[in-house]
TrEMBL record:
Keywords on record: Carbohydrate metabolism, Cellulose degradation, Glycosidase, Hydrolase, Polysaccharide degradation, Signal
GO MF assignments: cellulase activity; polysaccharide binding
Keyword Signal: yes
Phylogenetic lineage: Bacteria, Bacillati, Actinomycetota, Actinomycetes, Glycomycetales
Its EC number(s): 3.2.1.4
One of the GO biological process terms: cellulose catabolic process
Protein's UniProt keywords contain Hydrolase: yes
Protein name as catalogued: Endoglucanase
Residues annotated as signal peptide: 1-35
Alphabetical list of SMART domains matching this protein: CBD_II (SM00637)
Source species: Glycomyces algeriensis
Similarity comment: family membership: Belongs to the glycosyl hydrolase 5 (cellulase A) family.
Catalytic reactions of this protein: Endohydrolysis of (1->4)-beta-D-glucosidic linkages in cellulose, lichenin and cereal beta-D-glucans
Pfam families: CBM_2, Cellulase
Length: 462
């Protein structure tokens, strides 16, 4: 998946050139019936992957509109459009048309309103010959450019969590003994799912608000883990600003949806990139650490390296950077050997408050012996969080096999110990841990698309 970008088309009316903001396809419409004296249509390419892309459409109008119909021609070959928050969508050749859904038809004079979004197969290209309510926007003489959009601060969510949502119910979390407790000091066990490595998603499922809200309302999801790949080609180390921006979308969506979000620095050798991790978490903690639904995870799965000599010093540095700005949200600390040797970490814990330790299991590979290891860690006094698990082999289920009996033993053990969890992984594919089958839209509505261990995972989200 490529980083967020926009394209810009500058259109002229008469002798006057419209001064346009860099990074948007903006078209100035001539005045006509049912259209404003001037309007801007913003074609915002949210993300692009190998075979398709996602975009949002915004309209700015000089005069009020009570309803709208937008149409344009794509300059590239596009097919299979799936739009939301519209009626009457159609794609005939390169020509696309869509109308408002009623509730989003009103646009005040001077207002910019994001009115709908869509996914499509093909490459994003540009749009041309755009019309708003039948009025052609910009009649030639235009200058086209693809200048990058200037970086702007992400708007920080400040509204209270919506009524009836997990965050509204539980508030800010904290560690109480070997368990997690909510703002009322009652023990709480969060259950949810993890994203795929962001840069390897087949579509941007993790970044879609409608999909997150659908999981909350239909799967009873309480927590979502955003697994930001760090080391592979095309991941965070290659594009820090782009991937941090994608993580911020998930943070903002989780705040809007009222669910908890785990910000996962998804790496196997994060200790080799300590400076980058400190910068990443320091920045996000400064801007989002005030939120009650944030959980930080600085190291996904350390390899077989020393806890006391390598992993613990890394955690100390990153936790110190977080705590400079966020004194009390929970931090979940990765443990040796793919986050399995929790007993080793328990023997030499990191000093601090509201710290938990990562345990990962895959039920075809990890059985009672790993639960025994975890029991020793709990007896030593540390709190565990299973931020990743599967009813499969440890490779994520490349053979398509599931081991549900052993997975049920793990589910029962986590319930008995009040251990929160997120299951691997929200994406399409043949691995038995891929939750979705081909054709699953990014916006939810997945009743007919679950596969692999997904039915078992969903059944066990209480």
């Amino acid at each position: 998946m490529q980083p967020h970008r926009r394209r810009k088309l500058v259109a002229l009316i008469g002798a006057a050139a419209a001064a346009l903001s860099a990074g948007a396809i903006t078209i100035v419409a001539s005045q006509g019936a049912n259209a404003a004296a001037g309007c801007d249509v913003d074609y915002d390419i949210v993300s692009s992957w190998g075979s398709g892309f996602q975009a949002n459409i915004s309209i700015t109008t000089d005069e009020p509109l009570s309803d709208w119909t937008v149409e344009w021609d794509f300059t590239s070959a596009v097919s299979g459009i799936s739009a939301w928050n519209v009626t009457g969508q159609s794609l005939s050749g390169s020509h696309f048309t869509a109308s408002d859904a009623g509730w989003n038809g009103s646009i005040a004079a001077g207002q910019t309103r994001e009115v709908f979004g869509f996914t499509a197969s093909g490459s994003p290209g540009d749009i041309e010959a755009a019309e708003v309510n039948g009025v052609l926007c910009g009649e030639g003489g235009g200058e086209q450019t693809t200048e990058p959009e200037p970086t702007e601060p992400t708007e920080e969510p400040t509204e209270p969590a919506p009524d009836g949502t997990p965050v509204e119910e539980h508030g800010k979390l904290h560690v109480c003994g070997t368990q997690m407790c909510d703002a009322q000091n009652a023990p709480v066990q969060l259950q949810g799912v993890s994203s795929m490595w962001l840069h390897w998603q087949t579509q941007p499922y993790a970044q879609n608000l409608q999909g997150l809200e659908w999981m909350r309302d239909n799967w009873n999801l309480e927590v979502f883990r955003v697994a930001m790949g760090v080391e592979p080609e095309g991941a965070y180390l290659d594009d820090p600003n782009g991937w941090k921006s994608e993580v911020e979308k998930v943070i903002n969506n989780a705040a809007t949806a009222g669910v908890y979000v785990i910000v996962d620095f998804h790496a196997h050798e994060a200790h080799l990139h300590q400076a980058e991790a400190v910068a990443f978490f320091s920045d996000l903690a400064e801007r989002y650490g005030h939120l009650p639904n944030i959980i930080w995870e600085p190291y996904n799965e350390p390899l077989q390296v020393s806890w006391s000599g390598t992993i613990k010093p890394y955690h100390q540095a990153v936790v110190a950077a977080i705590r400079e700005h966020d004194p009390d949200n929970i931090v979940v600390l990765g443990t040796p050997s793919w986050s399995q040797e929790v007993d080793v970490a328990a023997a030499d814990p990191v000093a601090g408050t509201n710290l938990m330790y990562t345990l990962h299991f895959y039920s075809c590979t990890h059985t009672s012996w790993l639960r025994d290891t975890a029991d020793r860690a709990i007896d030593a006094g540390i709190a565990l969080f299973v931020t990743e698990w599967g009813a499969s082999a440890a490779d994520g289920g490349l053979d398509g096999r599931v081991c549900l009996d052993e997975a049920q033993r793990w589910i029962d053990w986590m319930a008995a110990n009040g251990i929160s969890w997120t299951a691997w992984k929200l994406d399409v594919g043949t691995d038995s841990t891929n939750l979705l089958s081909p054709g699953a839209p990014v916006t939810g509505g997945w009743d007919n698309y679950v596969r692999g261990h997904a039915p078992f995972v969903i059944e066990n989200i209480n």
